[in-house]
Amino acid sequence: MRALLDVVNLVLNLYVYVIIFGAVLSWLIAFNVVNMYSDVVRSIWNVLTALTEPVLRPIREVVPSFGGLDISPVVLILLIILIQRIIDMYIYPNVF
Q1: 21: part of which helix (H) or strand (E)?
Q2: What whole-number distance in Å separates Cα of residue 62 and Cα of residue 66?
Q3: What residues contact residue 29 under an 8 Å CB cut-off, 6+ apart?
Q4: Under 8 Å CB-to-CB from 59, ≥6 apart: which residues?
Q5: Owning domain of residue 73
Q6: Which residues lie below 8 Å from residue 74, measured CB to CB, with a gap of 6+?
Q7: pLDDT higher than 80, residue 96
Q8: pLDDT tens across 47-84, in order?
Q9: How far is CA 83 from CA 19, 52, 54, 91, in A?
Q10: How many CB atoms lie under 10 A from the CB of residue 42?
Q11: How far is Cα 10 from Cα 61, in angstroms, rounded to an integer?
């Protein structure tokens, strides 16, 4: 059971990196640093959007808009950290 919790923590850590990489890529696209007409960039963007958008969309509906600033990735990362802390402090010690 502890191995399963370790895998869950690892997947959550990897997902945090995916969220951060998606946010940075969206900034690079918005400021025209990266060209969206490139097939490689477009495919990476589609994969990142497919991985993060189903989780970020409900958060965007709840969190108020701050003009052009989207804080939903920050909220999601904080929720993931909370889940990891709950696993580490309360679930993991009680599993044999």
Answers
A1: helix 2-30
A2: 12
A3: 36, 41, 45
A4: 72, 75, 76
A5: 2-94
A6: none
A7: no
A8: 999 999 999 999 999 998 888 889 999 999 999 999 99
A9: 16, 17, 18, 10
A10: 13
A11: 28
CB burial of residue 96 (10 Å; 0-12, 13-18, 19+): exposed
Q: What is the DSSP string of 20-88?
A: HHHHHHHHHHHTTSS-TTSHHHHHHHHHHHHHHHHHHHHHHHHSPPBTTB--HHHHHHHHHHHHHHHII
Residue 62 has a pLDDT of 95
What is the rounded CA–CA span in Å between residue 6 and residue 87? 9
Alpha-carbon distance of 75 to 44, in angstroms, equals 23
pLDDT digits (tens, 9 = 90+) for 25-44: 999 999 999 999 999 999 99
- Give how far Cα 81 sits from Cα of 3, 4, 16, 26, 28, Å: 19, 18, 9, 22, 26
The token duo for 80 is: 């993931």
